[in-house]
């Protein structure tokens, strides 16, 4: 079975070395654009604009639309832009009820400048947002975050499969491990999913204990990892430039062994 991929501009997720996504966590559209323009060359394969960090975006979707437009203008043409409003229930910094969340994501999609949008699997208007995104030609990252614990391996696999069935172009899970068994559960579920998946996945365990999952994703079939330039958006994110070096080291070792880049390859 061939490995599923997702192409966003010049970046193909799921083909060999995981891509590095750098989150931008600024308070104003102008600051976000300046932050993107100042990123070191080669640090970001993908840029994630965290809309929940923008002051007032939860009540004024226009703030989010302006930020997406300004950041897109500051990015190189080949760099994809992922727009994300993370809700408080999943680790975000600004509260928004279900209708406000859906209105913001819909406004960003109508603006036409985001290559992909994050939609939380638990969102009440999930199906409508997935449809709107695909109608607008944007990819959907269906996501699930647990900052308190790590579900069992079987539950993690079920969540990834649910995301794929619900229309994800990229399935994403981030969890908080409490011990090494939690880390192994996340890695094992990712490998299980990659063996027969119709979609690429991005999975990570947060915090210091989970850092190995950010580095070794190619071994188990995770297509995207997150690295920071300046402020991180989640516990355990490592420097993006250093992360590129480790990912290249792992990729080279796998290639030297003639190993597949994921269990699904």
How would you describe the overall organization of this protein?
Helix content is 39%, strand content 20%. The protein is built from nine helices and eleven strands. The strands form two sheets. A nine-stranded parallel beta sheet has the order 9-8-7-6-5-4-3-10-11. The protein is globular and about 50 Å long.
Element-by-element helix/strand order: EEEHEHEHEHEHEHEHHEEH
Number of strands: 11
How would you characterize the largest beta sheet? 9 strands, parallel
The shape, in one word, is globular
Poorly predicted runs are: none
Helix content: 25-40%
Strand percentage, roughly? 15-25%
Structural class: alpha/beta
> Rg to the nearest angstrom?
17 Å
Number of helices: 9
* Order of strands in the sheet with most strands: 9-8-7-6-5-4-3-10-11
Distance between the termini: 7 Å
Mean pLDDT: 94
Topology:
Elements (H helix, E strand, L loop, with lengths): L5 E3 L2 E3 L5 E6 L4 H9 L8 E5 L10 H14 L6 E4 L13 H14 L4 E5 L5 H10 L3 E8 L6 H13 L4 E6 L4 H17 L4 E5 L5 H5 L1 H4 L3 E5 L9 E2 H18 L8
Helix pairs in contact: 1-2, 2-3, 3-4, 5-6
Give a short synopsis of this structure.
The protein is of the alpha/beta class and 265 residues long. It contains nine helices and eleven strands.
């Amino acid at each position: 079975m061939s490995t599923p991929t997702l192409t966003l501009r010049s970046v193909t997720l799921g083909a060999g070395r995981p891509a590095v996504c750098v989150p931008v966590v600024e308070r104003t559209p102008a600051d976000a654009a300046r932050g993107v323009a100042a990123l070191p060359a080669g640090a970001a394969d993908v840029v994630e604009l965290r809309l929940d960090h923008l002051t007032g975006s939860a009540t004024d979707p226009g703030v989010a639309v302006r930020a997406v437009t300004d950041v897109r203008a500051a990015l190189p043409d080949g760099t994809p832009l992922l727009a994300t409003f993370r809700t408080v229930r999943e680790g975000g910094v600004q509260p928004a009820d279900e209708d406000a969340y859906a209105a913001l994501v819909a406004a960003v999609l109508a603006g036409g400048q985001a290559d992909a949008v994050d939609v939380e699997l638990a969102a009440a208007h999930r199906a409508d947002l997935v449809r709107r995104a695909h109608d607008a030609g944007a990819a959907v990252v269906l996501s699930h975050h647990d900052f308190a614990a790590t579900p069992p391996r079987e539950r993690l696999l079920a969540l990834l499969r649910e995301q794929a069935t619900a229309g994800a172009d990229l399935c994403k899970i981030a969890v908080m491990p409490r011990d090494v068994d939690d880390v192994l559960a996340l890695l094992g579920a990712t490998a299980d999913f990659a063996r027969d998946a119709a979609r690429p996945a991005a999975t990570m365990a947060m915090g210091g204990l989970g850092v190995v999952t950010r580095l070794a994703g190619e071994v188990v079939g995770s297509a995207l990892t997150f690295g920071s330039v300046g402020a991180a958006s989640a516990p355990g994110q490592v420097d993006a430039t250093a992360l590129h070096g480790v990912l290249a080291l792992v990729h080279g070792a796998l290639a030297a062994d003639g190993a597949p880049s994921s269990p699904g390859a």
